[in-house]
What we know:
The structure is a homohexamer. By secondary structure, chain A is an all-alpha fold. Chain A has 2 domains: 1-50, no CATH class; 54-126, AhpD-like. Helix content of chain A is 79%, strand content 0%. Chain A has 8 helices and no strands. The E-F interface holds E 70-71, 90, 94, 97-98, 101, 106-111, 113-114, 116-117, 120, 126 and F 24, 27-28, 30-32, 34-35, 38-39, 43, 66, 69-72, 74-75. Chains A, B, C, D, E, F: Residues 33-116 form the Carboxymuconolactone decarboxylase-like domain. Chains A, B, C, D, E, F: One of its GO terms (molecular function) is peroxiredoxin activity. Chains A, B, C, D, E, F: This is Carboxymuconolactone decarboxylase family protein. Chains A, B, C, D, E, F: InterPro entries: 4CMD/NDH-1_regulator, AhpD-like, CMD-like.
Amino acid sequence: MTTTRYxxxxxKLMEVDGEGGQRVIDSLGDIAPDLGRYVVEFxxxxxxxxxxxxxxxxxxxxxAALTAQGGCEPQLNVHLNAALNVGLTxxxxxxxxxxxxxxxxxxxxxxxxxxxxxxxxxxxxx
Amino acid sequence: MTTTRYxxxxxKLMEVDGEGGQRVIDSLGDIAPDLGRYVVEFxxxxxxxxxxxxxxxxxxxxxAALTAQGGCEPQLNVHLNAALNVGLTxxxxxxxxxxxxxxxxxxxxxxxxxxxxxxxxxxxxx
Amino acid sequence: MTTTRYxxxxxKLMEVDGEGGQRVIDSLGDIAPDLGRYVVEFxxxxxxxxxxxxxxxxxxxxxAALTAQGGCEPQLNVHLNAALNVGLTxxxxxxxxxxxxxxxxxxxxxxxxxxxxxxxxxxxxx
Amino acid sequence: MTTTRYxxxxxKLMEVDGEGGQRVIDSLGDIAPDLGRYVVEFxxxxxxxxxxxxxxxxxxxxxAALTAQGGCEPQLNVHLNAALNVGLTxxxxxxxxxxxxxxxxxxxxxxxxxxxxxxxxxxxxx
Amino acid sequence: MTTTRYxxxxxKLMEVDGEGGQRVIDSLGDIAPDLGRYVVEFxxxxxxxxxxxxxxxxxxxxxAALTAQGGCEPQLNVHLNAALNVGLTxxxxxxxxxxxxxxxxxxxxxxxxxxxxxxxxxxxxx
Amino acid sequence: MTTTRYxxxxxKLMEVDGEGGQRVIDSLGDIAPDLGRYVVEFxxxxxxxxxxxxxxxxxxxxxAALTAQGGCEPQLNVHLNAALNVGLTxxxxxxxxxxxxxxxxxxxxxxxxxxxxxxxxxxxxx
Lengths: 126, 126, 126, 126, 126, 126
């Protein structure tokens, strides 16, 4: 059953984060493999696999949570790619980040938008 | 034109936050009326009035940003009401808050869910 | 196996948080029972049940993480009780909170210490 | 010499925070008296006693730091009183809080302004 | 009138942030031009253009808000330059950052001071 | 006596942080020497020199406080070295960081673990 949560989580991680997610898990292999396992089993196997919100909605929530916290640029990079992977357009992503301004102020949003700029350039969608 | 931004923002504030938003603006009247004006003009007249995301999507982003920041329970109260106002179901709202767990940890989500519990009880939707 | 993680987590939750933890899980029953389940299965079944640090060490880490984040007074209440439950003395707990001053500044520590004062009074250890 | 830092700090604490500061120190007496001592010696004896900025400037910095962090309403209460004590007008205080909007967003500023409203009412300056 | 807010904001942005501010607006041009527009119109046209505090006082508040939030080093870079532009001395700036220690702890202040070190070196004032 | 606090603090800083701590103090020499002095006198002379918790316990608290705050990677680098210096094993350190997941979410812990990976590689303990 742990295997099932892991397998379920891995499929979801691949669907959402793709290569960027796999790279994070791989880079944890020699220092904290169980941390990678919990990302797969809990974040993706338990949470992302729930019904109730579709993947576009989940990425809107994720982008806002990461933007608001600050200091999560590496995770924003992964999840900006994920947002594109699940079908949000660059314009929708930028709109979601800009919607955070009244709640987080400009600095958090500027940091997120400049991270998005790099991701969009790498993906050739800017 | 300032009038127009204010009028546009006020209509949007009423549509989204309703009474809860009006109470915030009113309570600022004797200490910082311009703060209330900026909430109306900038947050609602400029940001909420943009196309690109619908009001349900904007409330998902708002709930996540407020949950992730912490210490925003009064604003969560207003925007949990707003989320219901624009048509998100209680189940979708709880799902959005739970989606934040991997990004914010349990304490921020517990605080948000207990705020939601009060709002849902007041609205008779729990 | 999910049952086993839940059972393992529940025993650990009872051992660490006791009644305070049970109250949190119970109060989630009508709004977000799965959130309570994840606290049991993931936080206590997966993380707290790991070897490598004993429960006193885990509570030192927990208190510091909650103090540093801010806005987690309800969770600090539960985990200050937990710290006493696993055998940390009131003096050790206060020392751990004071050790945070250089890292978090005084306000976060003052909020935590005043929460500790209430808990210690309720437990009759002040 | 510790006595000197303490004495210097106590005079500065009385000058800046007045009764509100004394109440905080007193309330720490039975749980963490050394925490109170460090507030006096370090925050007020070392930092507030430095030349280079006057007390009005220091309170502007303090109010912004507390507003931006969030969850520091009890400390904001003390330091909004302090801001009045050192000669900032209610209008200057509100202006400083409103200046934070672009950097922190509206929720942090709303929490601070509503705390200011209570303080100004208690002080009869609203 | 929107034009007027923009023009007013642009003049203020040039007066305060100078080139560093212009670079931020320019770099948003291809991904989120409206974000740049809001920085000009709202942050500088509305907020910075208000009476009630002079520009030195506003930069003290800005530096404290950015230091306290953490993760805002790019914005601190711009506003440390701005602080010099409006006439604060390097010593006053460092003093303001050090005044934050009791409220934010050492790490946030160290990050801000090391950012100041780079800015002061670039400006030839260290 | 100030001398004594400084001397006491310096010895403790050397014992705990070693070279990494000295480098921080040195790099403050030309911009904010008093900031370095307060780190030595207050953080190490006052706080770290207290009885009540041993140095391993203090580093567990430190790592959690820095991880939870976010944006403190430079300070985590110093204190991950310190954690090794006072005798915590790499496995215990990783365990302490992973224990933060339920309280801070994955992004803060991932940032801390990747900082630990660099430190452990430099120290040849990975």
